[in-house]
């Protein structure tokens, strides 16, 4: 299971880490794209840095919601799953707890659950990228 999380989040930040992983083989991307079909540019951008170019598009937002829930980064109600985030951070050898680093990423519940999930995941990706770049 641990490897699974590392792998999927690795794919989110794929180009940065140059992982030797063929992300298109990963079922989560395919399953979510089947339910919420998005252009390749959206997938690539989200994978790179957690942002999507078409964040006003509800299908694109819900793709990220689907991704976050299927990877267990988010719970079914859209909150963070701290167990999973702790696993992810330990993979990147962070010195702090996930709550210390990512606590600021918690969003207030909103009517647009997919937007909330998107902003939460984008914040996670941005935070981890900035920590890595600061090294
Ligand atoms: C996502 O779905 C769209 C529409 O079915 C398809 O054109 C596209 O190739 C799919 N992308 C991936 C990466 O599977
Ligand atoms: C994220 O990656 C996409 C695709 O490479 C790029 O177009 C976009 O500018 C990046 N966004 C940020 C905030 O870095
Ligand atoms: C959202 O994006 C999809 C894929 O590009 C497109 O088919 C759909 O029409 C867009 N929806 C809206 C409401 O713009
Ligand atoms: C949180 O993620 C773990 C795996 O990291 C999973 O076993 C657990 O069921 C998840 N909890 C919730 C509330 O989704």
Overview of the molecule:
- With 135 residues, this protein is mostly helical.
- The protein has a single domain, classed as Orthogonal Bundle (Recoverin, domain 1).
- It is built from eight helices and no strands.
- The protein has helices at residues 2-12, 14-17, 27-35, 40-49, 58-70, 82-91, 98-102, 113-133.
- Helix 3 (27-35) packs antiparallel against helix 5 and helix 5 crosses helix 8 (113-133).
- The chain is globular, with a radius of gyration of 14 Å.
- The relative contact order is 0.15.
- One 2-acetamido-2-deoxy-beta-D-glucopyranose (NAG) binds at residues 24, 30, 33, 37, 40, 43.
Short description:
Residues 1-23 form the signal peptide. This protein is mainly α.
Q: Which key features would you list for this structure?
A:
135 residues, mainly alpha, Recoverin, domain 1, disordered N terminus, binds 2-acetamido-2-deoxy-beta-D-glucopyranose, signal, PBP_GOBP_sf
Number of domains: 1
Cα(first) to Cα(last) distance is 28 Å
Determine the structural class based on helices, strands and strand pairing: mainly alpha
The profile of the biggest β sheet is: none
> Residue ranges: pLDDT <50 for 5 or more in a row?
1-6, 14-25
CATH architecture: Orthogonal Bundle
Please report the number of helical segments.
8
Quantity of strands, as a count = 0
Mean pLDDT: 79
Dominant shape: globular
What CATH calls the topology is: Recoverin, domain 1
Write down the Rg.
14 Å
The proportion of strand residues reads: under 5%
Roughly how much helix do the residues carry, as a percent range?
55-70%
Supply the CATH superfamily name.
Pheromone/general odorant binding protein domain
The CATH class turns out to be Mainly Alpha
Q: Which molecules are bound besides the chains?
A: 2-acetamido-2-deoxy-beta-D-glucopyranose
> What string, H for helix and E for strand, traces the elements in order?
HHHHHHHH
| Oligomerization | single chain
């Amino acid at each position: 299971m641990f490897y699974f999380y590392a792998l999927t989040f690795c794919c989110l930040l794929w180009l940065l880490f140059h992982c030797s992983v063929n992300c298109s083989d990963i079922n989560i991307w395919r399953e979510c794209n089947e339910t919420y079909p998005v252009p390749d540019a959206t997938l690539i951008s989200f994978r790179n840095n957690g942002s999507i170019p078409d964040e006003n598009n509800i299908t694109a937002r819900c793709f990220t919601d689907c991704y976050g829930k299927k990877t267990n980064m988010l719970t079914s109600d859209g909150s963070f799953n701290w167990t999973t985030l702790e696993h992810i951070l330990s993979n990147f050898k962070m010195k702090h707890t996930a709550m210390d680093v990512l606590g600021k990423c918690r969003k207030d519940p909103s009517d647009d659950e997919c937007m909330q999930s998107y902003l939460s995941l984008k914040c996670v990706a941005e935070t981890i990228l900035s920590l890595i770049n600061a090294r």
